Records
---
Amino acid sequence: MPNSGAFEPVLSAKALGLLHALSKPKQRRLIGLLFRLAEQPDQVGDYQSRDDTGREVQHLLIGDLVVSFWPDHAVKELRIVEIEEI
C-alpha cells in the first residue's frame, strides 16, 4: 500500500503506452517500482536533462528501462514523463 505522505506517481500517455505493452509480471514490478520511487521524489537520476520549459528531468536506469521523471511539489505528484526500453 502506498505511503500516505509520499508523492503519487502520475504517468504521461507515452509512459502509460510502454507500461501497457509490457507483460503482466513486468507491469506489476514496474508499478511497484514507480510507487517506491514516488516515496523519494527528489532522488537524483543517473543523468539529467531539461525539457522544453527548462524543467530538470531525472533519468533513472532500472534494469532494461530508463524512467524519466520530475517531482511536482505543488500537488505531491511524481510526473513520469517517459519510460523507455533499452
---
Amino acid sequence: MRAPVAQGSPAAFESEHLWGPAGHSTWEPALAVDPNSRWVYQMTTEQLPGDYLLFRSSGDGGATWNPVQHLCLNVAKKPGFQYDPELAVAGGTIYAICLNDFDPGIVFTRSQDHGTTWSVPARLDGSLKYSDKPILLVSPAGKDVYVGFSTGYALHVAASHDGGTTWSAPVRATTPHLWYYPYGGALAPDGSIWFSVDAEAGVKQTGDGRIGLVTSSDGGKTWSTKNLAATHEGEPCPYKECYPDFFTGQAAVGIDRAGSMVFAYAQNLARRGPNALYVMRSHDGRSWSAPLLVSSKGNNTSPALAAGPTAGDFRLVWQDNRNGHHAWNTWYARSTDAGATWSAPVRLSDRGSGAAYKHAAGYDFPGGDYLGLTVDANGVNHVVWGEGSGVYTPAGTWWTRGGP
C-alpha cells in the first residue's frame, strides 16, 4: 500500500551547505542538538592518512559555528583509523562515540562544556576483537547510555547507568548467525530500548536478510529480536570502492513522546533489484501496521527518522537516484499523524555546483552509507549527509536546517 500524501506547504529549508576543509574528502557525518538550548553539534570524518574526526559546535542553532577541532579518540598503542562517529546530548552533556579501527573498536567520550574539553576515551567492546557501525542512545536525563554495534555475526550492546562513568561488559543481543548492523535506534517513554537492524546472510553479506528491531525492557540485561521484513542481495554497485552489500536493507526507528513508533526501511523484493522505501507503524512495539510505500523511485537508501516535539510528529530523510544513475539526492518528508500519511518529498540537495561530483540533477553517489537527522525543541530539522563520486573519495559533508 502506498502511503497517502498529506496536504500542506513544503518545508522551508536553507540551501545546502558544504562543511569541511577545501579540497579534502569527508564522509559519514553525525549531528545532535541540545533539547533545552540552541546548541547544535556536528562531527565528520576527514579522510587523510590515519583518518581522524572533526567536531564543531554552534550556540545559535546553526547560524554560526565555532572553530573546528580534532576529536581524536585513539586508545590504541599504534595509530588507527577514526570513523563512524555518533553524537547525543542530554542534560547539557555531549556524548560521543566512534570507531578506533575495528580493534580496539568502539570508544566513548563526553563533554560538559560544549566540546571545549573531553573526558579520557573509554573502550566499550571489552575483549571483543572486532566491532563496527555503532549506534548511540542516551536517556533524557543522561543517566542511561546504550551503544549497539556489530561484532560480525551478532549485535552486542554496552550499557552505562551512570552517564558514561562506568560501563558493563558488552551483552550479546542476537542469536541467529547473521551479520547484524544497527542503523538507528530510539528510547521509548517507558525506558525500553530499540535498535533498528539489518541482518545479512553469507560470507560477503550478500544473502537474503532480515530487517527489524532488537529491543530490551530491562535496561539492556536481556534482549529480543522482532523481524519485520525480508530483503535480498542488493542491486550491484558499480561506483568507486563500493562493496557488495552497499544497497542493504537499512532501517531506522523513531518514537514520539506518546510512545508511538515508526519503522522506516529500504527493501528490495527481488534479488539484485532496487530498494523501495517503506514505513510501518506501532503503538506498542508488538503489533505493527502493514507496510506503507513512501518512495519507489530509483534506488532508495540511508533512511533516518526522528520524532518532532509533539505527539504524532515524525521526520524522515533518505537518499535516492530517481533523477538518474549519477543523479542522487537527499530527500525529506514529514508525518503529523504518527506515520499514517506523509508530505510530498522535499529535495534537500538543491545546489547544482560546489564540487566536481555535483550536477543540476543531483550528485554522483552518496558519500558513505548513512546520514544524520535530528529535530530541535522548536521543531526545526537539522540534517547532514555525504555526497561524492564514490563511497569514500572524493566526497564531502553537506548539511541544512529548516522545516518543519
---
Amino acid sequence: MLETAEEMERFFVDLCTFQELKALEERWEVCQFLNSGQLSYREISEKTGVSTTTITRVARFLKDEPFKGYRCVLDKLERSNNDE
C-alpha cells in the first residue's frame, strides 16, 4: 500500500530503532554483493564490516530458504532497471 520511497522510509523510521535500520541496511547490502557473485564472504565482510555469520545467514535465505523475500525484491529491481 505504500506508494513512494518516502512513505516507505517514514514507515521504517517509525517502526525500527536506529540499530535495527542499520542491520536491515547491512543485510540488504550483503544480499546485493552475494547476488553479484563477484566477492567472497571474507571480501564482503571487509567491505561492509558485517560478520561472516551474518553473511552466511543472508546467503542461506537468498538461496535455500523457501520464503524468497530477497529474491523477490532483487528480481523486481532488475526488471525495473531493464525497463528504464
---
Amino acid sequence: MKTFQYTITDPVGIHLRTVTPLVKKVKEFPGHEITITRDGNTVNLLRSSAVLKLAVKQGETVTINVSGDNEEAAAVALEAFFRENL
C-alpha cells in the first residue's frame, strides 16, 4: 500500500467541480483500491457523493491510500493531480 498526505489549497476545498475530475482520474487505475481519509473517516475515491460528504475544506489535510498491482504509479499520478487541482 502506498500512502500520501495532502493539504487542500483550493479556496473552496473538495467540491463538485473538483470531485468529478478526481473520480475520473481514479478510474484510470482499475483494480486498485483508492481511499481518502479525513478526521478518521475513510471513503472510496470512486464514490463522489461519499467524498463530498467528507466536506474537506481549504487547509485540511487528507490521507490517500492506494493499493493494487501498480500502486506506485497510481499514487504518483494522484499526488500530481492533487497538487495541480486541489
